[in-house]
Amino acid sequence: MDNNQKEVLVSIRNLDVVFGRGKKSFKAIDNVSFDIYKGETLSLVGESGSGKTTIGRAIMRINPCSAGEIYYDGKKISGKLSRKDDREVIRKIQMIFQDPAASLNERATIEYIISEGLYNFHLYKDEKDRIAKIEKVIKDVGLLPEHLTRYPHEFSGGQRQRVGIARSIVMEPEFIVADEPISALDVSIRAQVLNLLKKFQNERGLTYLFIAHDLSIVRFISDRIVVIYKGRVMEIAETEELFAYPLHPYTKSLISAIPIPDPIIEKNKKLFVYSRDLHDYSVEKPELVDIGNGHLVFGSPSEIEKYKKVRFG
Which of 92, 116, 245, 261 is least buried, going by the fewest C-beta atoms within 10 A? Predict the structure, then answer.
């Protein structure tokens, strides 16, 4: 439990992820800390290359942590785990990938793709039970049982993503990392997939880490938002709090980039472009500070005072 009496499901503490060694090393994630509460949708937003997917993959233990810890339900899951704990974490934490074409095995039928997790963890009593489970989940995602004998190349992008969702849901996970699950889809299909994710959350009490770069979509699905820039957390706040009071200049630049449906307003609006030159950290060192109302901002002491005045007057 944290101070707000909310149950913490995933806790990331001082996470660093470094790729390469020696002179060729690159620090993709730099001292990132945040919590994900049980039953919420926390969104990670930032431009391409900011480190969103790297954090998601670190939670999945695809990317090893160079420093810091990741806890799931109070247990440390970063680093080496016993075989029993490893299998338990794999079953409880699932991922929906960005590219529905690349994440499905082209040579396998949809039935096998969805059943693979059931086979590996033996999550069925007998063959009849396995068939019943995959037929139920394929209907739940809006496809038909006759689709099970087909191959991924026979489906559209939206249908493939539904298969990807079915594959993760059939494992009955508690936590899902959704890595830009709708960025490769048509606009008309995006809303359907988002509604599907919401439906599963309400029915099964799922917790999501939703990775995206489009803030207009994030506003629809998130409870809280973490803004990331070049591997560092810039701002954390509840969704409406962040949209009402974007304090960090980088957050303001992301919000200013959201398209406005009115072409005249869109044509005349001014884009706010973020630059690191806006900050002077030569004397005062910046850190992530809670300024109140669950709103955390990254800045030097003088910047934090300025942000507090903007937020609370």
Answer: 261
